[in-house]
């Protein structure tokens, strides 16, 4: 029998690694003892490592996917197609994090939260790929959109960034309300 815990273990690992990175960033970036170090590169490399470990965990569970499996009363589905899409997503996320390093150097952008938000949106995309129910898909899309609201408004000194974040939030709220209430 396919173990329920092994089915979502890569997603659980990535969520836990993201929360640990967030705690690490908050503790060390506000630490007077360490003279408030810049953590964007450090958290970026640790985030890349957590994405690669998640890919290895996903690959370790691949031989169990000989047939489609449904979990938690048809809430999630795991089969070969979802496996392929999740591996492709994790490779894309690793490439995105690698491209972020050049952006951080070029713009002198020192916010570790950017990597944490990318990892949280990746977790929601992993759940969205496996979703077999409309409620599961809606919750995954909402978690992803919350991360993207903050990413869109991440440049604090730019009016365009703030405007884009607010527009994205308002349009997302209207579309979510229409989707929920008809």
TrEMBL record:
<dbReference type="Pfam" id="PF00361">
    <property type="entry name" value="Proton_antipo_M"/>
</dbReference>
<keyword id="KW-0812">Transmembrane</keyword>
<keyword id="KW-1278">Translocase</keyword>
<feature type="transmembrane region" description="Helical">
    <location>
        <begin position="164"/>
        <end position="181"/>
    </location>
</feature>
<feature type="transmembrane region" description="Helical">
    <location>
        <begin position="43"/>
        <end position="69"/>
    </location>
</feature>
<feature type="transmembrane region" description="Helical">
    <location>
        <begin position="81"/>
        <end position="104"/>
    </location>
</feature>
<feature type="transmembrane region" description="Helical">
    <location>
        <begin position="12"/>
        <end position="31"/>
    </location>
</feature>
<feature type="domain" description="NADH:quinone oxidoreductase/Mrp antiporter transmembrane">
    <location>
        <begin position="131"/>
        <end position="182"/>
    </location>
</feature>
<keyword id="KW-0472">Membrane</keyword>
<feature type="transmembrane region" description="Helical">
    <location>
        <begin position="111"/>
        <end position="129"/>
    </location>
</feature>
<dbReference type="InterPro" id="IPR001750">
    <property type="entry name" value="ND/Mrp_TM"/>
</dbReference>
<protein>
    <submittedName>
        <fullName>NADH dehydrogenase subunit 2</fullName>
    </submittedName>
</protein>
<dbReference type="GO" id="GO:0016020">
    <property type="term" value="C:membrane"/>
</dbReference>
<keyword id="KW-1133">Transmembrane helix</keyword>
<keyword id="KW-0496">Mitochondrion</keyword>
<feature type="transmembrane region" description="Helical">
    <location>
        <begin position="135"/>
        <end position="152"/>
    </location>
</feature>
<keyword id="KW-0813">Transport</keyword>
<keyword id="KW-0520">NAD</keyword>
């Amino acid at each position: 029998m396919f173990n329920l815990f092994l089915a979502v273990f890569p997603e659980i690992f990535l969520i836990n690694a993201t929360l640990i990175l967030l705690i690490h960033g908050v503790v060390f970036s506000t630490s007077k003892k360490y003279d408030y170090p810049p953590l964007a590169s450090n958290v970026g490399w640790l985030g890349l490592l957590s994405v690669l470990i998640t890919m290895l965990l996903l690959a370790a569970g691949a031989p169990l996917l000989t047939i489609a499996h449904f979990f938690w009363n048809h809430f999630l589905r795991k089969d070969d197609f979802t496996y392929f899409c999740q591996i492709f997503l994790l490779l894309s996320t690793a490439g995105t994090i690698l491209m972020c390093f050049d952006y951080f150097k070029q713009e002198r952008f020192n916010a570790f939260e950017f990597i944490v938000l990318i990892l949280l949106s990746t977790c929601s995309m992993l759940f969205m790929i496996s979703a077999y129910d409309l409620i599961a898909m809606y919750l995954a899309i909402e978690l992803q959109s919350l991360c993207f609201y903050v990413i869109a408004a991440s440049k604090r000194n730019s009016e365009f960034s703030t405007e884009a974040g607010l527009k994205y939030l308002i349009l997302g709220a209207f579309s979510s309300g229409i989707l929920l209430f008809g």
